[in-house]
Amino acid sequence: MMNGPIDGETDGECRCGCHYAQEDAIMHCMACCYQCPKCYKNISTLSYDEHKEKCQGTRALETELQFFNENRQEWFEHHAGKIALIKGTTLYGFYDDFENSYRVGVDVWGDVDFLIKEV
User: Fold this and answer.
1) For the chain, which has fewer Cβ within 10 Å, the N-terminal or C-terminal residue?
2) Taking a C-beta distance cutoff of 8 angstroms, is the pair 45, 12 a contact?
3) DSSP 85-110
4) Same domain, 68 and 33
5) Beta 115-118 vs 90-95: how paired, if at all?
6) Are residues 110 and 74 in the same domain?
7) How far is residue 113 from each of residues 59, 73, 85, 102, 105, measured CA to CA in Å?
8) Confidence (pLDDT) at 9
9) Domain of 69?
10) In terms of domains, do 75 and 94 share one?
């Protein structure tokens, strides 16, 4: 399997089968990607140099994690053990398990990044 733009990956993020827990996963003798030290994404070796120059260094879910940490103590008093569902600086709700919170997040926002984290 090739990586990078050859596979139609215009953002350069590696989507190689070796990153997924599969019985028949591809194992490489050389790295298929490198982790960007700014955004922490796995970037295809074919796209890494270009990505490194353009990367703004924003970690995925940085805003959501900051919002969670700022409110965690307050939420812990009433929702300890529950799963918080967060997008941006909006708390959508608390859920009993990760599966339900994930399902709600996908229903509400679609296939985008959002945070689900235990309080």
Assistant:
1) N
2) no
3) EEETTEEEEEESSHHHHHHHHHHHH-
4) no
5) unpaired
6) yes
7) 11, 24, 11, 11, 9
8) 46
9) 62-118
10) yes
Residues in the chain: 119
Q: Which amino acid is at 78?
A: H
Measured from the Cβ of residue 74, the count of other Cβ atoms closer than 10 Å reads 10
- Contact predicate 90/54, CB 8 Å: no
* CA pair distance 60, 28, nearest whole angstrom: 26
Shared domain check, 68 and 40? no
Could you tell me if 66 and 33 lie in one domain? no
The predicted model scores a pTM of 0.53
Average pLDDT, the chain: 81
Summarize pLDDT for 91-108 with one digit per residue, the tens.
999 999 999 999 999 999
Rounded to a whole number of angstroms, the CA Rg of the chain reads: 17
For 19, which DSSP code? Answer: G
